[in-house]
Amino acid sequence: MTNPGLQNLSLVDVALAALLVLVNGAISVALTLDLERKLAWAAVRTVVQLLAIGYVLGWVFAYDRWYVVLPLMALMTLIAGFAGSQRGSRTYAGQRADSIVSIWVSAWLVAAVGLFVVIRIRPWYTPQYAIPILGMILGNTLTGVSLGIERMTSELTARRDRVESALALGATRWEAAQAPAREAVRAGMIPTLNQMAVVGVVSLPGMMTGQVLAGQSPLQAVRYQIVIMFLIAASSGLGTVGAVLLAYRHLFSAEHRFLASRLIERAARAKRRAAG
Amino acid sequence: MSNPQSVPPSATVPLVAAQRIVRRDAARDQTLLEPTDLTLDAGERVALTGPSGSGKSVLLRALALLDPLDAGHVQWRGRPVTRARIPAFRRHVAYLRQRAALLDGSVEDNLRYPYSLRVYRDVSFQAARVRSLFERAGRGPDFLTRDASELSGGEAQIVALVRVLQLDPDVLLLDEPTASLDPDSARAIETLVAEWSGRGREARATIWVSHDPAQARRVGTRQLTMRAGVLSQAPPDAQTATPAREAGR
């Protein structure tokens, strides 16, 4: 599968590029941002994670069995779910499960549509398609889900008085939660909408760039990118709505009560965990 | 009416009856409200006093079913309140919080908001009625167009009260509605509530939480006190008798 037109990169070439991180380090030192350690850690993670996934993918592509591909996809989804639940200063018991469930259901549903209906891959688990496409969907869905949950908890914290006043007036739990839930879904969908608005004009997406670098005709690469954009949009929309609804179910009881005491500071929760 | 035990049980069904209701704070392992019985009959005006943190708000919120009860139950006109009936129950039993929480928009937007809720589908906003209520509170007709975010605390509380009164509740649960208000607004609140009670011809009832003994005497015909989560009935003449007794010593 080596492409004659493609410049192969040696590890020395990669190391040269890695030196560019010193630019960020210099900025951090000059402005005393105190980000050097974070920066170093992030750089190391970039290198290690990508090298690791390169080896894993090389092996998976060569081995090419559904019972290898599927667990890998499940693992990617779980990691995305965990990452999606890390945001926001307030959290609630069950937030992580909500994040995992909403990302899992939406990303897999949309990926299935993309792989089986649009691209029609054979066999159905072809890793060269399934893994990168699921990966791109997951990355964007996780942003939507985490922004959605974060906005939901922060809106409910800030608007607690209004939510309770609405309930006291006789609003159902859904009527009382509607305004915060709307804001949360909006917040979760905006990054995708922004991305769709500037794609091709400001940013050339990585997948498209990669295909072009690999010798694919730009017109084909663009078609793929259009499909991917809509898959991403659908999945992050579904995932955000799902996550916000799950959060709503956790924070409002069937007796039309707002269970504000379930919203706890993330720091306090971590402390209690450590003590327990 | 100050002692419901003296009324024959068959005479009236109380509007609201709480039986052995308990509220606990599980996180801090604290009892906020000890097992409490309370009946509120039509025509009753209860004044509830007690030190801050003693559980007065906890009791009112529990009666409005706004917080989960750890034991006991609340009845409306002799019947338990089912899940599905809770919004309707809160339409009858209106809880007014200490600090008004208004929505973005004008005063009128705030007054129209309840009519967007399912439980008020059968009624509609009456501008004339609202204007006359505001007039009783000393606010002109242009008050409706004011921006809610620009109102003073007192004005906001008047809006919150009118928002509830226009909906004709049967019971008002007032959680220190005039605490931290200017005297003028506090008087307006008292006037509005008194007139609402008067119009009900003994069919309406209030529980008014206050930390001001003089106000408690003004607004209540039955005096209750709360101490460390325990509700007790003050003797009918306790509030007025106390200074005299002290003077005699």
Structure write-up:
The complex is a heterodimer of chains A (276) and B (249). By secondary structure, chain A is mainly alpha-helical. Chain A has 2 domains: 1-63, no CATH class; 64-275, no CATH class. Chain A is built from 11 helices and 4 strands. Chain A has helices spanning 11-18, 21-30, 36-63, 66-84, 95-118, 127-158, 160-169, 173-198, 206-213, 218-251, 266-275, and strands at residues 90-91, 252-253, 257-258, 264-265. In chain A, the strands form 2 sheets. A two-stranded antiparallel sheet of chain A has the order 1-4. A two-stranded antiparallel sheet of chain A has the order 2-3. In chain A, helix 5 runs antiparallel to helix 10, helix 8 packs antiparallel against helix 10 and helix 9 (206-213) packs antiparallel against helix 10 (218-251). Chain A is globular. Chain B has 249 residues and is of the alpha/beta class. Chain B has a single domain (4-248), classed as Rossmann fold (3-Layer(aba) Sandwich), CATH 3.40.50. Helices cover 32% and strands 23% of the residues of chain B. Chain B has a 6-stranded mixed sheet with strand order 6-7-8-3-9-10, sandwiched between helices. A 4-stranded antiparallel sheet of chain B has the order 2-1-4-5. In chain B, helix 5 (153-165) runs parallel beside helix 6 (183-199). The A-B interface holds A 161-162, 164-172, 175, 253-257, 259, 261 and B 27, 64-68, 83, 86-88, 90-91, 94-97, 99-103, 113-114, 116-120, 160, 163-164, 167.
Element layout with pairings:
The complex is a heterodimer of chains A (276) and B (249).
Chain A: H1 11-18, H2 21-30, H3 36-63, H4 66-84, E1 90-91, H5 95-118, H6 127-158, H7 160-169, H8 173-198, H9 206-213, H10 218-251, E2 252-253, E3 257-258, E4 264-265, H11 266-275
Antiparallel strand pairs in A: 1-4, 2-3
Helix pairs in contact in A: 2-3, 4-5, 4-6, 5-6, 5-10, 6-8, 6-10, 7-8, 8-10, 9-10
Chain B: E1 16-25, E2 30-40, E3 45-49, H1 56-63, E4 71-76, E5 79-80, H2 86-92, E6 93-96, H3 107-112, H4 127-136, H5 153-165, E7 171-175, H6 183-199, E8 205-209, H7 213-219, E9 222-227, E10 230-233, H8 238-248
Parallel strand pairs in B: 3-8, 3-9, 6-7, 7-8
Antiparallel strand pairs in B: 1-2, 1-4, 4-5, 9-10
Helix pairs in contact in B: 5-6
